[in-house]
C-alpha cells in the first residue's frame, strides 16, 4: 500500500489483480446487476488510488477496508435506485389508474354494444380485431366465403359507428381495419 500512496501504478495493478474479484463479487451479490457491480468495482479502486492515505493498516486489513467501502457504495446505489423507482412508480400509478378507468368504461360500453350485434358479425369482427386474423385467414378458418367475411366485418363496423357515434374523436368508434392501409 505504501507504493500506491506514492503513485506507483504497478503496485496499484497488483492490488487490483489481487482484490478485484472480492470487490466485484460482493457488489454483484448486493446489487444483482453485473454492470452496476463493474461500476462499483471501478469506483472503489479509483477511490483507493486517489485517497490511498485513507486506508490505515493498524485498523484492519486492506481486504476488510475494500469490503466495507464496496458494501457502502453498493448500498448507496440500491437506495438511490429504490428512491428513483418509487418516484417513477408513483407517477406511473396515477397515470395508469386513470387510463385503466377509461379502458374499463370503454370495454363495458363496447361489450354492451357488441351484445346487440348479430352473432355472425361479432364472430368476424372479433377474429379480425381481437385475434388479428386477416380476412382470408378468417375465411379459411371458418369456411365462410371471403366476400361474406368482408361484408360481415364492414356491417359490424357500420353497426359500431352508429352505436358509438357520440364518442369523441380517436375513441373506439374511430378504429380502422388493422389490415387496411391508412388513408393519407
Give keywords.
disordered C terminus; mainly alpha; single chain; elongated; Rna Polymerase Sigma Factor, Chain: A; 184 residues; Arc Repressor Mutant, subunit A; 74% helix
Question: What does this protein structure show overall?
Answer:
- Helices cover 74% and strands 0% of the residues.
- The longest helix is centred in the middle third of the chain and has 54 residues, at 62-115.
- The protein contains 7 helices and no strands.
- α2 packs antiparallel against α3 and α5 (119-130) crosses α7.
- The protein has 2 domains: 2-86, RNA polymerase sigma factor, region 2, helix turn helix motif (Rna Polymerase Sigma Factor, Chain: A, Orthogonal Bundle), CATH 1.10.1740.10; 116-184, Arc Repressor Mutant, subunit A (Orthogonal Bundle).
- With 184 residues, it is an all-alpha fold.
- What is the N-to-C order of secondary-structure elements (H for helix, E for strand)? HHHHHHH
Extended strand count: 0
CATH fold-level name of the largest domain: Rna Polymerase Sigma Factor, Chain: A
Q: Estimate the global geometry from the Cα principal axes.
A: elongated
The secondary-structure class comes to mainly alpha
* CATH architecture annotation name of the largest domain: Orthogonal Bundle
The fraction of residues assigned to DSSP E strands is under 5%
Largest pleated sheet = none
Low-confidence stretches are: 168-184
Q: Could you report the average pLDDT, rounded to the nearest whole number?
A: 82
What's the gyration radius in Å?
32 Å
Q: How far is it from the N-terminal to the C-terminal residue, by CA?
A: 71 Å
Helical residue percent? over 70%
What is the number of domains? 2
CATH class of the largest domain: Mainly Alpha
Number of H/I helices: 7
Quaternary organisation: single chain
What name goes with the CATH superfamily of the largest domain? Answer: RNA polymerase sigma factor, region 2, helix turn helix motif
